[in-house]
Amino acid sequence: xxxxxxxxxxxxxxxxxxxxxxxKCTGCGVCFTSCGKKVYGFDFGLKKAVVSQPQAxxxxxxxxxxxxxxxxxxxxxxxxxxxxxxKQKVLVxxxxxxxxxxxxxxxA
Length: 108
Ligand code: SF4
Ligand code: SF4
Known about the structure:
Elements: E1 19-20, H1 30-34, E2 40-43, E3 48-51, H2 63-67, E4 73-74, H3 78-87, H4 90-107
Antiparallel strand pairs: 1-4, 2-3
Bound molecules: iron/sulfur cluster (2 copies).
Residues 18, 35, 37, 39, 57-58, 61-64 line the site of one iron/sulfur cluster.
């Protein structure tokens, strides 16, 4: 499945997705049933969540880590992500996106 680019950066070039510690995962199912991006699958045989669509993860989101009561989910460092964003000049792209949206709003 090809996912949309994130602010013009191909999603596959961005290191951001959850990792499950299988030793800590109790198979409670909260992450699987909560993530609106459908990043997770669930192995009913092993009773464990699995990261089946890592690139579908919303860049910068850590909701599932916050709501895992067993602390089984981790992410890359936020500072690393911010450095990557600076290097990729994401704010320049976003400024252009804002200008486009503004024009669209004025034309509506
Ligand atoms: S919320 Fe945590 S413990 Fe529950 S299934 Fe997901 S990773 Fe496993
Ligand atoms: S961080 Fe957000 S988008 Fe990514 S898997 Fe967790 S809940 Fe889903």
